[in-house]
Design brief:
Ammonium transporter fold, disordered C terminus, single chain, mainly alpha
């Protein structure tokens, strides 16, 4: 997705074809696909992650978890169009970030995206918003079940502004990594950053209530599968929309995405069955997610056989870090990452970025980035091994930068917010859950939309307790 866009304020075309109502540069096929792909990506968040989060947590946190995702989606859009899009993809301001400018002018939104893409700028702005929104929503998976909602309301715009925009500008925009790091659709910018930032924020927010941390069953596994389905099929737009056109790379990216995901799910499931003697539905969902994440940085740039290998590794390596290493490591145990976002996104995103540097085919790189100067994947660097080795070095360097930046900036944001409100809910609210935070509960158990009344504890006066305990 590494594009360099000329951010002039385009004037609207004077002459439109009378039977089409569109300028000559607009490709209706590309435009229709891009809007469809953006809708797919949006559906991954709303309702996809809203349903997934609301059903994967304990019943008393269903409303709060789902609403954290819905709120983030809404506020991210306003931040994006008012300043964050231009910070991420706009005119050069510094090696780290572009100039924060408004993207809402008609002359800007309805002008051509750039000379090589036959789309209006509005498509570009909205598609990139969907990416930004899902990144911060993925991050929320590490914080479910205890973060103060008022702190979350401040966290979302601050993190998008100070963290996400920097990652997008340095790797995809005009920052100091431009035309160097292979990150087709966000293995680093989206998944590594959300995994690292989520883990860091979880450290500062603190753990869930002790009972919740020990006993946190999903409240509705069938709905979990529904949310997972939105996530999986929505990835068709996630990776299929990144070329900003309905071409060969688009088709290859989509089929590679689903091949890798299916392989990863089956590998994770097989390991669960071998080790635990049971086929875990939640485990299969985790394997699905790691496959989607791993293929993202190289979806349109690797061969299908490489997608199978990436799926095998994404179904096994994150399984090991989550199910074995996490339980043995005092470092991982000290941080309460509610849904294991570090493993499913940071580990899988890093794995995908490194494997993309290994498997990226030069001919596919040239199709995706005709004017770019990426080195070939290390396995395809015959006669130019030094270029393949240098490209792998850039993949490692990019991962180190994204990790360090997100850990530092997320810590700063959490410390800043903690000076204003508590990051974590009060212990009393943690015991109650949704009703204490929002005054609402997920499920009506009886009557006309009413919840079952909580039994009141009978208080016996001390004198009566003595009379009852005194032997006759």
């Amino acid at each position: 997705m590494s594009l360099q866009v000329d951010y002039r304020i385009y004037s609207l075309p004077k002459g439109l074809a009378p039977d089409e109502g569109s300028p000559a540069w607009l490709s209706k096929g590309d435009n229709a696909w891009q809007l469809t792909a953006t809708t797919f990506v949006g559906l991954q968040s709303v309702p996809g992650l809203v349903i997934l989060y609301g059903s994967m947590v304990k019943k008393k946190w269903a409303v709060n978890s789902a609403f954290m995702a819905l709120y983030a989606f809404a506020v991210a859009l306003l931040c994006w169009v008012l300043w964050a899009h231009r910070m991420s993809f706009g005119n050069y301001n510094s090696p780290l970030v572009g100039k924060p400018m408004n993207s809402l002018q008609d002359g800007f939104l309805l002008g051509q995206m750039d000379a090589s893409h036959h789309l209006p700028m509005a498509d570009y702005v909205f598609y990139e918003f969907a990416f930004a929104a899902i990144t911060v929503i993925l991050l929320a998976g590490s914080l479910l079940g205890r973060m103060n909602f008022y702190a979350w309301m401040m966290f979302v715009p601050l993190w998008l502004t100070l963290s996400y925009s920097v990652g997008a500008f340095t790797i995809w925009g005009s920052g100091f990594f431009q035309r160097k790091i292979i990150d087709y659709a966000g293995g680093y910018v989206i998944h590594l950053s959300s995994g690292v930032a989520g883990f860091t924020a979880a450290y500062w927010v603190g753990p869930r209530h002790s009972h919740d941390r020990q006993h946190f069953p999903p409240n509705n596994i069938i709905q979990t599968l529904g949310g997972a389905g939105f996530l999986w099929l929505g990835w068709t737009g996630f990776n299929g929309g990144s070329p900003f056109g309905a071409g060969l790379i688009t088709s290859l990216a989509i089929i590679n995405t689903h091949i890798c995901t299916a392989t990863s799910l089956l590998v994770w499931l097989a390991i669960d069955m071998i080790v635990y003697k049971k086929s875990s539905v939640i485990g299969a969902v985790q394997g699905m997610i790691t496959g989607l994440v791993c293929i993202t940085p190289g979806a349109g740039l690797v061969d299908p056989w490489a997608a199978v290998l990436m799926g095998m590794m994404s179904g096994s390596i994150p399984w090991y870090t989550m199910m074995v290493l996490h339980r043995k490591s005092a470092f991982f145990q000290s941080v309460d990452d509610t849904l294991g976002v570090f493993h499913t996104h940071a580990v899988a995103g890093l794995l995908g970025g490194l494997l993309s540097g290994l498997f990226a085919r030069p001919s596919l790189l040239n199709l995706m980035y005709p004017s770019e100067n990426y080195g070939p994947g290390l396995l395809h660097s015959e006669g130019q091994f030094h270029r393949g080795l240098r490209q792998m070095g850039y993949q490692i360097l990019g991962a180190m930068f994204i990790t360090a930046w997100n850990a530092a900036v997320t810590s700063f944001i959490c410390l800043f917010i903690s000076r204003i409100v508590n990051l974590r809910m009060d212990e009393e609210d943690l015991e109650v859950g949704d009703d204490a935070v929002h005054g609402e509960e997920a499920y009506a158990l009886w009557g006309d939309g009413e919840t079952m009344p909580k039994p009141r504890r009978l208080r016996i006066p001390p004198i009566c307790r003595r009379l009852v305990s005194t032997p006759s």
